[in-house]
Each structure stands twice: as structure tokens, then as C-alpha cells.
């Protein structure tokens, strides 16, 4: 079933201990939509500037991502993020955020996307996320992401959004920042009390924690020998996760667990190369092979 993603389409300048890239295609909507495209039909609602390259549009479209709701601001510049990673690849340091056209983004959902049953509000100003949600007629599942920048700059807007979403997908540091609690389980409970029914905490190479009012589920990250660039891992996870839910339409606890594994698998591919390169060359068999390997990794037959 159709998935609508709103988020950033960006140019990223990234440095990791293994290399650097300047102004390469990135953004929360780019990563999440490409990951989701392996599971379901996906449309992106986003904005870019006049500097956005036609070939980058073609890259997203090559995976069938619908860009009919991607608008270009005449004379504007595309959102630019500059980040750096040390050997602790879980810790992204933002060096510079140039909002550019994102600063005035006032998203209008085109009529043909208003009935999208699955919505992922990827990392973006919570005011814009809310505005999109207000225009969707009958969403079945609404998942959202955010980051330290917005928790800091737009806390009130985020507080208004939380009761309106089903699933919040954020990282460990953001969980602590948003809740003001250090202990992750306490932090998760505090965030659930703010509205969402389910919290998915991304913990980088330590995996993912899913917390609901009455359950906790943990999945490891797939152990990799070569990680080059963790940029977009969180968005790729979210795209794979929501994309899988949209594909199956099954929201049972077992299906949500499988969606978490699919998200983790997509993220594990993404970090193997810079920008969206790995997500663009992936084959269905690669995903299936890693799914089997992931199953083996976590299989366990002991008893007490
Ligand atoms: P991730 O590594 O999954 O947390 O996300 C990295 C992506 O988020 C990069 O491609 C950036 O372009 C994008 N990004 C960084 N800061 C922001 C922001 N304030 N709003 C929206 N997207 C952002």
C-alpha cells in the first residue's frame, strides 16, 4: 500500500575516518524513500532549490520513487548538512546546517496523495510534519522521526505532534534529550506518556529497542566488517521498517518485529558505502540473503 514520506532532500558534506564526500545526495526523505522502495510504492513530499541536479532526481526515480510532490523553489538553494564522524560511528557531529529552502517549506499535500494509508514524517521541522498530517484524510499508520536540532529549536511543535502519531523512531541520545531521563527504559516510558503508542529507539551498532506500554523487544544490529559512512542509517532503518509494514499491512507484534529486522538489514547495507550508493545497487537476493543470516545470528534454542 502506498507510503507517503515527507522529509529533507539534501546535499550532504560528510567526513568519516574512511573518506570524505562533498555535496552528495542525502536527506532524510532520500534515504528513507529508497529503502522503502524495496517493499512498497512510495511518494516523497519535499522541497529542493534550483541547484538540485537532474541526475539526482533520476537516481531516486530509478528505484520507482514517485517525485510528483517534489517542488523546486525558483532561485532557492537545496538544504545542506555538513557532518563528521570519528571512530565512534554512532556519534554524528553536525558541523553546519544550512536550511536554505527548508527554512520556508510550507508543505501542501497534492490531492492524489491525501488518502495515503501509511505516512512517514521523516526528520524535518515538526511544524511542517504537523501540517502534512493535517492534510491526510485517513492514515492507518503514522510514524515520525526527529533529531536533536528540532528537539532543541522546536520543542513545542514536537510536543503538539507526539499525540498525533502512532510510532516515534528516534535514536538513543534523542530519547534522553526529549525525555530528560538518562535510563533508556524510563526515558521510553516518559515519551510514551507524551502520546505515541510505540517508541523505536535506534542504538547504532547496538541495535534497536521497541517499547510499548506493555512490551519491550530488542534486536541487534547486523555485525559488519566494513562500515564507511553511517549517514542516513537511521532514515534507512525507518524506510525499511515502515516500507515493510506498508507492504504486508500486518500490524501484529510479530510483523512489527520482522519490520524492525528489515529496517536493520536495510541500514546495514546503507553504511557500506557513501551517500545512497549502496541502496541504489542492492538486489532483492541481497536482502533475502542478509535476512537469513540475521535469523541465524539471533537463533537460540536453549531452555531454562
Ligand atoms: P541519519 O544519519 O539517518 O540520522 O540522517 C542523516 C540525514 O539527515 C542527512 O542526509 C541529512 O541531510 C539529514 N539531516 C540532517 N539534519 C537535518 C535536519 N535538521 N532536518 C532534516 N534533515 C536533516
The total count of helices amounts to 11
Any idea what the CATH superfamily is called? Ribokinase
Which residues form runs of ≥5 with pLDDT under 50? none
Largest sheet: 9 strands, mixed
Beta-strand share of residues: 25-35%
Helix content: 25-40%
By CATH, the architecture is named 3-Layer(aba) Sandwich
Strand order of the largest sheet: 5-4-1-8-9-10-11-12-13
Per the principal axes of the C-alpha atoms, what is the gross shape?
globular
Q: What does the radius of gyration come to?
A: 18 Å
Derived from helix and strand composition plus strand pairing, the structural class reads alpha/beta
Write down how many β-strands occur, each being a DSSP E stretch of 2 or more residues: 13
CATH topology: UDP-N-acetylmuramoyl-L-alanine:D-glutamate ligase
> Could you report the average pLDDT, rounded to the nearest whole number?
96
The CATH class turns out to be Alpha Beta
Domain module count: 1
Bound molecules: adenosine monophosphate
Secondary structure topology:
Layout: E1 3-6, E2 10-16, E3 19-26, H1 28-36, E4 42-49, H2 54-61, E5 66-73, E6 80-85, E7 92-98, E8 118-121, H3 126-135, E9 141-145, H4 148-153, H5 155-161, E10 167-171, H6 172-179, H7 184-192, E11 198-202, E12 208-212, E13 215-219, H8 233-248, H9 253-270, H10 277-281, H11 284-298
Parallel strand pairs: 1-4, 1-8, 2-6, 4-5, 8-9, 9-10, 10-11
Antiparallel strand pairs: 2-3, 6-7, 11-12, 12-13
Helix pairs in contact: 1-8, 3-5, 6-7, 8-9, 9-11
The structure holds adenosine monophosphate.
Residues 8, 10, 12, 26-28, 81, 92, 97, 123-124, 147, 149, 231-235 line the site of adenosine monophosphate.
Amino acid at each position: 500500500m502506498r507510503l507517503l514520506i515527507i522529509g529533507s532532500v539534501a546535499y550532504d558534506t560528510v567526513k568519516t575516518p574512511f573518506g570524505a564526500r562533498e555535496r552528495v545526495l542525502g536527506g532524510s526523505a532520500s534515504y528513507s524513500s529508497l529503502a522503502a522502495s524495496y517493499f512498497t510504492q512510495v511518494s516523497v513530499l519535499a522541497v529542493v532549490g534550483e541547484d538540485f541536479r537532474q541526475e539526482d532526481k533520476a537516481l531516486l526515480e530509478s528505484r520507482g520513487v514517485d517525485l510528483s510532490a517534489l517542488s523546486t523553489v525558483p532561485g532557492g538553494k537545496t538544504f545542506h548538512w555538513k557532518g563528521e564522524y570519528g571512530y565512534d560511528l554512532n556519534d554524528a557531529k553536525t558541523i553546519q546546517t544550512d536550511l536554505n529552502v527548508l527554512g520556508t517549506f510550507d508543505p501542501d499535500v497534492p490531492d492524489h496523495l491525501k488518502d495515503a494509508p501509511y505516512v512517514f514524517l521523516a526528520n524535518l521541522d515538526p511544524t511542517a510534519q504537523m501540517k502534512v498530517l493535517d492534510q491526510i484524510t485517513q492514515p492507518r499508520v503514522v510514524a515520525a522521526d526527529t533529531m536533536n536540532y528540532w528537539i532543541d529549536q522546536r520543542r513545542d511543535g514536537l510536543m503538539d505532534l507526539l499525540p498525533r502519531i502512532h510510532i516515534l523512531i528516534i535514536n538513543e541520545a534523542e530519547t534522553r534529550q526529549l525525555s530528560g531521563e538518562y535510563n533508556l527504559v524510563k526515558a521510553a516510558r516518559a515519551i510514551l506518556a507524551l502520546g505515541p503508542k510505540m517508541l523505536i529507539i535506534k542504538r547504532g551498532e547496538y541495535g534497536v529497542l521497541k517499547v510499548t506500554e506493555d512490551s519491550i523487544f530488542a534486536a541487534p544490529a547486523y555485525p559488519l566488517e566494513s562500515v564507511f559512512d553511517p549517514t542516513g542509517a537511521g532514515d534507512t532503518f525507518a524506510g525499511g521498517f515502515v516500507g515493510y509494514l506498508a507492504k504486508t499491512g500486518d500490524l501484529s507484534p510479530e510483523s512489527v518485529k520482522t519490520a524492525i529486522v528489515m529496517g536493520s538489514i536495510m541500514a546495514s547495507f546503507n553504511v557500506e558505502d557513501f551517500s545512497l550508493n549502496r541502496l541504489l545497487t542492492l538486489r532483492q537476493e541481497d536482502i533475502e540473503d542478509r535476512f537469513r543470516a540475521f535469523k541465524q545470528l539471533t537463533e537460540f534454542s536453549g531452555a531454562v
